[in-house]
Amino acid sequence: NCSRSDPHNTCYLIRFQDSLLKRTFKGEIYQKLYSYHYLINGFAVFLSPQQ
After folding, report:
1. What is the DSSP string of the chain?
2. How far apart are CA 24 and CA 51, in angstroms?
3. What whole-number distance in Å separates Cα of residue 4 and Cα of residue 18?
4. Which DSSP letter does residue 25 get?
5. Where does residue 30 rank: exposed (0-12), middle (13-18), buried (19+ CB within 10 A)?
6. What is the C-alpha to C-alpha distance for residues 17 and 39, in angstroms, rounded to an integer?
7. Cα distance between residue 29 and residue 49, in whole Å
8. Predicted pLDDT of residue 14
9. Which residues, in sequence order, are CB contacts of 30 under 8 Å at separation 6+?
10. Which residues in the chain show pLDDT less than 70?
11. Residue 13's closest CA among 30, 31, 33, 38?
12. What is the pLDDT of residue 39?
């Protein structure tokens, strides 16, 4: 159930995943088990003791 007003772009991500699988496994049989579509915005950084 995709909506243009989807604030998390869930539908876009699922369609992108499906397209990527289709291109990667051209003509092969595969089974998509689950779509992970929750995103986390973050980063990692090394800091010195002084920082």
Report:
1. ---TT-TT-HHHHHHHHHHHHHHHTTT---------------------TT-
2. 44
3. 18
4. T
5. exposed
6. 14
7. 52
8. 86
9. 21
10. 1-5, 7-8, 39-42
11. 38
12. 67
Distance between CA atoms of 22 and 42, rounded to whole angstroms?
Answer: 30
> CA dihedral defined by 44, 15, 3, 33, rounded to 10 degrees?
-80
pTM to 2 decimal places: 0.59
pLDDT of res. 35: 85
**Is residue 47 within 8 Å of 33, Cβ to Cβ?**
no
Dist. CA 46–CA 26, nearest whole Å? 41
Total residue count of the chain as it appears in this document: 51
* Chain centroid, CA 18 distance in Å: 10
